[in-house]
Amino acid sequence: MVANGPSASPVHKAASSESANGTNDSTNGSTSSNGHTAPASKPKLACFEHDREEVTRLLIQSLTDLGYEGAAASLSQESGYDLESPAVAAFRHAILQGQWTEAEELLLGGSTEEGGVSINGNGLALQEDVDQDVMRFWIRQQKFLELLEKQDTGKALMVIRSELTPLNQDTSKLHFLSSLLMCDNNYDLMRRAEWDGANGESRNHLLSELSKRISPSVMLPERRLAILLQQVKRNQISLCLYHNTAASPSLYQDHVCDRNDFPKTSFIELAEHAGEVWLVVFSNNGKRLASCGADGVVMIYEVPSFAVLHTLAEHDSGICALAWSPDDSMIVTCSQDKRARLWTAETGELLHAMSSFQEPVSSCVWAPDGKSFVTGHLDRGVGITQWDTSGKMLSEWGAAHRVQDIALAPDASRLVAADDKTTVFVYNFKTHELEYTIDMPARMGSVSITQNSRYLLVNMLDGEARLLDLDTPDDVLRKFKSYTPDAIQFIIRSTLGGANESFVAIGSESGHIYIWHKEYGQLVEEINGHGGFSCNSISWNPVDPKMFASAGDDSKVKM
C-alpha cells in the first residue's frame, strides 16, 4: 500500500470501531479488536510529548512511501496502530479500481462490501465547509471521461444527463464536458481534457484531491512526514541570515551558514572600460558577463576566467541597458544614440540596428520564448515597442509617458514600466492593456520582478527600495533604506539574487553596496565596493550564489 496511491490490498487490518480515525487506543498490553496486542506504556520522552499515535501512523505512512512495506507492517503489528481504517482503505481501493458507486457510498454514507468486509456508516469524516456535491462531481466526471475513453458514448451521455447535471455545478464545465462527446479519438479526448486516461495518473490525482477534503485524522495527507521535514528545513533556512546555497540542509543537525562564506570580498577587478560603467549583467547560464557604460562599448567576459571574449563597439554614445536572450545566444543593447541593437553573443557580430527614435532607448527585456524582445523609450508617445529577432517592429504600445526602465514577469503575464518620475505602470503583456498604476514617493532607477512572477522590486533614487506584491500592489511588503543621497541625479539599479533570490542588493552614489535579506528586511552586509565612486549596478551570478558583480563610475567592474 502506498499512501494515497495504488494499494496491493483493498482493505487494511480492522480497527476498533470506537476510534474515529480507524485506530485503536491500546494501553497496558490489552488486546485490540483487530488482533494486535498493544504494547505496554512507554515513556513519552521518546517522542517529546508528541501524540504517540500520530507519530507512529506518520512513520508507518513514511516507511510505506519509501518502499519499506515489511517494516511498515512490523511497526503496525508491534504498535497496535493502523495507518487507516477499513473504510478508508476500501475507499482508496474503490477510486483506484474505478468502482464509482462504491466510492460515493463510502465517501458520503451508505453500505457496501469490499474484500469480504462489510462497512456501514455515515461516510468518511469530511473537513468543515466541504461541498459534498463538488466531490461527487469530481468522481462522476472521472467516470464520464473513462466511459468516453472506452468509446461508450451512450453511457457517457447518461452520466452527463442523470448524474452530473443534477449536481448543479459549474454550467460552463458541464458544457465543456458535453463537447468532449464530439472527440474523434482518445488522443483528441486527452488533449482537450488535459487528462491522461484511466491507466495514467488520473485516478491517483482524483484520490489526492478528494483526500484533501477528508479529515486528516481519518485519511493522512500525502507524504505527511516528508512535508513536515521540509517545513523544518525551510524554517531553519528562513532563520539563517547568511543562507546562500541551493543545497538542501542536512536533517542530522541544526542548519547555520558561516558569514565567511558570504560574498563580500572583491577577488578581481575588470578595467577594460574607458569611462563610467553603468550596467553589468550575467548571462542566464552564468558562463558569460556583459558590461557597458559611458564609453559606448559592451565588454563580454568569459566566466570564471574573466578573459575578454568580445568588444561590441558600434554604438555612437553611452549604453544604458542590455539584456541576454533566454538561451544566451543573443544580446540586445540600448543606447543614448536613440537606437537598440541586436548582437550574436557567440561571435559579437551585429545582427540588426533598430530604427532610430527621437530620444534615447532606455531599457530592454526579452520575452520568455526568446522570439521577441521589448524596449522602453524616453520618447514620449512611443514608450514601449516590441521587436522580433529579424529587427522588425511587432508593436508600438504608444504609452503616453517616458519609460525609464521595464521588467517582464517570467511567466509573461505582466510587463512593468517605470517612468522618469514617480509612477509605475503595470500592463497585461499579451493584450498591452494597462491594468493599474502605482504611485511611488520618489523618482525611480529600476524595476525587477522575482522568478515566481509575483513580487516587484522598485529602486528609488532617494536610496530606498520597496518590495511589492503585484496582486495586491497597495501593500508594501518590505522597505530597504540604504542611504540618503545629497542630490538625486544618478540612475542606481537594484537587483534580486543569491540562492532562491534571498537577497536584495543595491548600489549607492558613495560606492557602497548594501545587501538586504529579502524576507526579513534586515541589512546583511555593507560593502565598500567602489571607494567613493558611484556603484551603479549589481548582477548576481544565477548559478553561483557566492558570486556577484558590481559596476561603478571608477570605470571598473568588480567581482
Automatic annotation (TrEMBL):
User: Which UniProt keywords are listed?
Assistant: Repeat, WD repeat
Tell me the ranges holding the WD repeats: 270-311, 312-353
Gene Ontology, cellular component aspect? GID complex
Which PROSITE patterns does this chain map to?
CTLH (PS50897), WD_REPEATS_2 (PS50082), WD_REPEATS_REGION (PS50294)
**Compositionally skewed regions (Low complexity) per UniProt:** 21-37
Show where the CTLH domain sits: 84-155
Supply the InterPro entries for this chain.
CTLH_C (IPR006595), TPR1-like_2nd (IPR054080), WD40/YVTN_repeat-like_dom_sf (IPR015943), WD40_repeat_dom_sf (IPR036322), WD40_rpt (IPR001680), WD_repeat-ST_regulator (IPR051350)
The question of whether Oxidoreductase is a record keyword is answered with no
A Gene Ontology annotation in the biological process aspect, one of them, is: proteasome-mediated ubiquitin-dependent protein catabolic process
Keyword Magnesium appears in the UniProt entry = no
Fetch the CDD domains from UniProt: WD40 (cd00200)
Show the segment(s) annotated as Disordered. Answer: 1-42
* One Pfam family, short name: TPR1-like_2nd
Organism superkingdom: Eukaryota
Q: What is this protein called?
A: WD domain-containing protein
Name its species: Calycina marina
